[in-house]
Amino acid sequence: RQSVLRCCSHASVLPGKRAQDSDTCLVMWCRASPWQVRRPFVLGTQQQQWKATISHWFIRFLDEDKLLTTLFTQNIDGLDYQTGLTRSKAINVHGSLAVIKCEGCNADADFEAFCDQVQTNVKDIYGVDPTAPKESTNILCQSCGKPLVKPNTVLFGGSLPEEFFARSESDAAAADLLIVAGTSLQVSPANSLVYKVSDKATRVLINRERVGEELGLDFDGGEQEGRRDLFLGGNCDETFLQLMSLLEWLPRLEAVRDQLPEGNQQLLDAALQKAEHMRSV
């Protein structure tokens, strides 16, 4: 079976929030002084201060087994790429901190090189990095020379990537399983994936609470024949861990244990102990 997933982060949380004014946003990303506020977030992303979770690794394993059609994610934290997920399989609906572009000429920029320039060009207003410059200078685009280089996150009032609209039609139609995880399903047009999949596709919601019923999800069908919607209530990482156990993927997750957040490591250790106990009885 192939699947389309949309998943959000839980155990790894990137601080900060999107600005609510388009002019402020443009200045924030493109001029040196307001960059000072964002400096620790950008460098923290480079240094993997926030780690990909069990949920992210579940998606990576689907990709490895050629079971993943597309990951549509509203997260901008770039954690999906920490796992080595095939880049062409991910659609960042609202952009990503891990993808750098020039707002002026749309040229791509190297993520590591960009972070190095944030390190050397942008003042540390928090006073925690003694290597930071005393004053900030612009980060210029290597192609057009303008100070418009930024992560390709979608700012307030900005347009979603064209790729989302094209792939949400074709890839959703090709999938026979939709997994929706960690979302309120309140944000349009990302929530349109729920009704863009085939009428024959199974739809699974992994979430703390039931959502999406106004979009056509029906979790009250009982065991009736033809039921297509399933609600798995609870924490996303814990639920995906249970699915990994059923799929016998725990050894694969154990192999990347050190790359998980501490809380996820504890969840995995408990699951491994339980699996060992079950084998011994």
**Regions with little confidence, pLDDT below 50 for 5+ residues:** 13-34
What would the principal axes of the Cα set say about the shape? Answer: globular
Oligomer: single chain
Number of strand elements: 9
In short:
By secondary structure, the chain is of the alpha/beta class. The protein contains 9 helices and 9 strands. The relative contact order is 0.16.
3D structure, described in words:
It is a single chain. This protein is 35% helix and 13% strand. By secondary structure, it is of the alpha/beta class. Helix 6 links the parallel strand 7 (177-181) and strand 8 (202-207). Helix 1 crosses helix 2 (32-46), helix 2 (32-46) crosses helix 4 and helix 7 (236-246) packs parallel to helix 9 (262-280). The protein is globular. The two termini are 33 Å apart.
List keywords for this structure.
281 residues; alpha/beta; three-stranded antiparallel sheet; 9 strands
Question: What is the secondary structure topology, with strand pairs?
Answer:
Elements: E1 3-6, H1 22-30, H2 32-46, H3 54-64, E2 68-73, E3 90-92, E4 100-102, E5 108-109, H4 111-121, E6 149-151, H5 162-174, E7 177-181, H6 193-196, E8 202-207, E9 229-233, H7 236-246, H8 250-254, H9 262-280
Parallel strand pairs: 1-2, 1-7, 2-3, 7-8, 8-9
Antiparallel strand pairs: 4-5, 4-6
Helix pairs in contact: 1-2, 2-4, 7-9
